[in-house]
Design a protein that fits this description.
This protein has 404 residues and is an alpha/beta fold. It is built from 14 helices and 14 strands. Strands 4-10-9-8-7-5-6 form a seven-stranded mixed beta sheet, sandwiched between helices. The protein has a four-stranded mixed beta sheet with strand order 1-2-3-12, covered by helices on one side. Helix 8 links the parallel strand 8 and strand 9. Helix 2 runs antiparallel to helix 11 and helix 4 packs parallel to helix 5. The longest helix is centred in the C-terminal third of the chain and has 19 residues. The termini are far apart. 47% of the residues are buried.
Length: 404
């Protein structure tokens, strides 16, 4: 007789042994006091400082966003009522999609329940809409892109990360009239490097390929209006499909694509991950709409965000801590061992009331385990100094390797 529980126990124990078992932190953010939060993981709640939130600009705390959500709840109630086809399309959804299309200079946009679903549903659907379409995927693409490509069950190729020569060599091997899509990201969230979007578009035009750009770690954060790196670099009009999230720079939840009216209509009509899913609540759509509109007009948050990231990197380097150089806001500090990474983050919480999550395999390759710090406009110098002091102390206690 099969012992199902024994199989489950063995699977979990293997993660514990490897140091990859994930523990959720039970916290509640404090509106108006971010990055402060209350931690409920001990017998008594206590205040902590959050250093791993993807709410990069603290827009989840912004008065315009919170007020818009309250207004939507008072006006429309809580839930959307169904899928977009059956009662779940509210005026908030329509306005949000119009705003997102405008943000990226595209004809249309489509909102999904998450950025993961946006990638999964769109890429898998494209593989079915274009028979035998070859998807050329950057080697460091996000798991959601990889899963979408797999579910499309079409031919795929992996090109070396940000390697234009390898990409072109692979494109040369494919008939110019054969359908193909180059799928890549703008800001790669674990290392913080940035794709050469314009040069990739050059190759796409030369070899008759569509481009699919994941901007989830860039929308709201880069460009004059928050349209991402493609807007900053002046190449958004050359990208066929831009995928983004509402859950990071915009401080809400949900994902989206922006593209031609024909592309969006086809995905809307064929993607099961969109058709059969209840739409995001009206309050979430309203809050996202307020956030996008605000960041289209205000560059203050983006400027502060970049300055805070640069300042933290400088402080880490001054303390001889192994921060990775990156041209973006991402601040990875290398550990290189999953068990030590977990010990470090546990000690930060237990001894210093600092919340950072360990980043282990499969999010990053084995041997490249790290912590990923996310400074934002609300992180003051005093927060940074306390973090550096704690890291310096723990680096000594745990005998971790310093910067070379």
């Amino acid at each position: 007789m099969a012992d199902y529980n024994a199989v489950l126990d063995e699977a979990i124990q293997s993660l514990r042994t490897e140091g990859r078992y994930r523990v959720f932190a039970d916290i509640r953010r404090k509106r108006g006091e971010f990055p402060k939060a209350t931690y409920y993981g001990d017998a008594e709640p206590r205040d902590i400082t959050v250093w791993c939130s993807n709410d990069y600009l603290a827009m989840g705390q912004h008065d315009k966003v919170v007020n818009a959500m309250h207004e939507a709840i008072d006006t429309a109630g809580s839930g959307s009522g169904g899928t977009r086809n059956i009662g779940g399309t509210t005026h908030y959804h329509v306005q949000l999609e119009q705003e997102l299309a405008s943000l990226h200079g595209k004809e249309s946009a489509l909102v999904f329940t998450s950025g993961y679903i946006a990638n999964d549903a769109t890429l898998s659907t494209m593989a079915k809409l274009f028979p035998d379409c070859i998807i050329l995927s950057d080697a460091k693409n996000h798991a959601s892109m990889i899963e979408g490509i797999r579910r499309g069950r079409g031919p795929k190729r992996i090109w070396k990360h940000n390697d234009l020569e390898d990409l072109e060599n692979q494109l040369k091997e494919i008939d110019i009239n054969h359908p193909k899509v180059i799928a890549f990201e703008s800001v790669y969230s674990m290392d913080g490097d940035i794709a050469p979007i314009g040069a990739i578009c050059d190759l796409a035009e030369k070899y008759n390929a569509l481009t699919y750009l994941d901007e989830v770690h860039a929308v709201g954060l880069y460009g004059e209006h928050g349209g991402g790196v493609s807007e900053r670099d002046g190449v958004a009009d050359r990208v066929d499909i831009i995928e983004g999230t509402l859950a990071k720079g915009f401080g809400m939840m949900g994902g989206y694509i922006a593209a031609s009216a024909a592309m969006v209509d086809a995905v809307r009509s064929y993607a099961p991950g969109f058709i059969f899913t209840t739409s995001i609540a009206p309050a979430i759509a309203a809050g996202a709409l307020a956030s996008v509109r605000h960041l289209k007009q205000s560059g203050e948050e983006r400027r502060a965000h970049q300055e805070r990231a640069a300042t933290l990197k400088a402080k880490l380097r001054a303390a001889n801590l192994p921060v990775m150089d990156s041209p973006s806001h991402v601040v990875p500090v290398m550990i290189g061992d999953p068990v030590m990474c977990k010990q470090l983050t546990d000690a930060l919480m237990d001894q210093f009331d600092i919340y950072v999550q360990p980043i282990n395999y499969p999010t990053v390759d084995k041997g490249t385990e790290r912590i990923r710090l996310t400074p934002g406009p609300k992180h003051e110098d005093a927060h940074m100094d306390a973090l550096i002091e704690a890291l310096d102390t723990l680096w000594k206690q745990l005998q971790l390797q310093r910067a070379a």
